[in-house]
Specification:
Helix content is 76%, strand content 0%. It is mainly α. The longest helix is centred in the middle third of the chain and has 61 residues, at 16-76. The chain is rod-shaped. The protein starts with 15 loop residues before the first helix and ends in a 6-residue tail after the last helix.
């Protein structure tokens, strides 16, 4: 009859340096995370502030334009539509922006 023969192998490892290395990796990952967070805040501020300023400027421009149109309506009464048409064609002819 055949017998099963087994082989036992014992493997040992020195884990003293492994623990230190893992702590170093953990510290480096934390530093990298902090740098990425800082970069994200900087990018957010660099984009958010100009977009907010542009939004405020657009609202002011729209308000000023509406106010100007209301002044034309009051000043010229029934003729205000003709004055607005004249202004549009004049602006186009001279290449002037509408808000000016």
């Amino acid at each position: 009859m055949a017998k099963n023969l087994g082989i036992n192998i014992k493997i040992g490892a020195d884990l003293k340096n492994f623990s230190k290395d893992m702590q170093n990796v953990s510290r480096q990952m934390k530093k990298t995370g902090q740098k990425m967070q800082s970069l994200g805040k900087s990018m957010s501020a660099a984009l958010t502030l100009p977009l907010a300023a542009a939004g405020v400027a657009m609202i002011k421009f729209a308000s000023d334009t509406e106010e100007s149109l209301n002044k034309v309506d009051v000043a010229f009464g029934d003729s205000s539509k003709e004055v607005q048409k004249f202004a549009e064609t004049t602006l186009k002819s001279f290449g002037i922006a509408r808000g000016t």
